[in-house]
User: Fold this.
Amino acid sequence: MSLINYSSREINCKIVYYGPGLCGKTTNLQHIYSRVPQETRGKMISLATEMDRTLFFDFLPLELGQIRGFRTRFHLYTVPGQVYYNASRKLILKGVDGIVFVADSQIDRYEANIESLMNMHDNLAEHGLSIEKIPLIMQYNKRDLPRVVSVVELEKELNPKGHPYFEAVAFRGNGVFDTLKLSCKLVLKQLG
Amino acid sequence: MVKGNWALFEEDFYAISQILQTLRKSSSARSVMLIDKTGQLINSIGEPPGFDVTSFSSLVAADFGANAEIAKMVGETDFSTLVHQGTHESLFLQHIANRVILVVLFDRKSSLGLVRLKARRAGDDLLNVLQKLFDKLQYRNEEIAPPALGADFAAEAENEIDSLFRD
Assistant:
């Protein structure tokens, strides 16, 4: 639900990183924060527990600068992945313009990915939204670990509709910007 | 009520700014802000706050969202106003038109009673402006193409994204 302000000539869009607990959503934002120019990024807010698990959300504003006279901003959010924080996840999805689903490639987390994806669909539906109308990017994270599900298998189970996907090792930054760039582009394309 | 993307036009922005100005003066507040329920700042009037307004807006929206859920749990549809009272600075938040949050930041020069009284009046005025805006957007969404950003916008945005976001 982007907001276009024709008077102050500003466009604000919201991208949400969704996925099961410990899949690497916060790591994606931390990498982006560490690599984008200082003038492009705002303050990163993390509402986390003492154990550094996301409690409510992480938030990172990014400013693209002037595009055709419009000051264009992306607000990146993560949701808390742990199952019992569903009320928070639902809130964060409010007004979403684009979603990145971060899947944990490890065999042990296969079911958790499926559960989280179903939960995302349910929560979108509660806001009257459907993934058919919101750009979705799949990110298969932790590809460097030894016991991982093949991308073919992940695609078959998690992405039957063929949304764009990237393989990633978020803590090293692999695939993080490819994912972000495509998500931003698809969101802006919808506005054009 | 218009759903999905929404847009603010020059005349609406001006009308909103006038209402916020009047509220700030009449309530002796430090600053007054209008924030979209998804956490995007629409306008800020008064003293430039000494904090990151973008982050502030996202936290205010989250705060309001969380409280709305709590309200439902206790059998209310919504808590239409929230107050955060500090030793030196306080915040008054009011939900308007189910779409935006009016935020009044005030210190000891004002009082909660005064802010509440003036904000109620401003809330009614904002509701009128927003209702007209939503009607206009509804009409645009149904009858005319949505506000176009120009054919070159997406192409230029792509170039900017490629140059800014890279390892």
Chain B has one domain: 10-164.
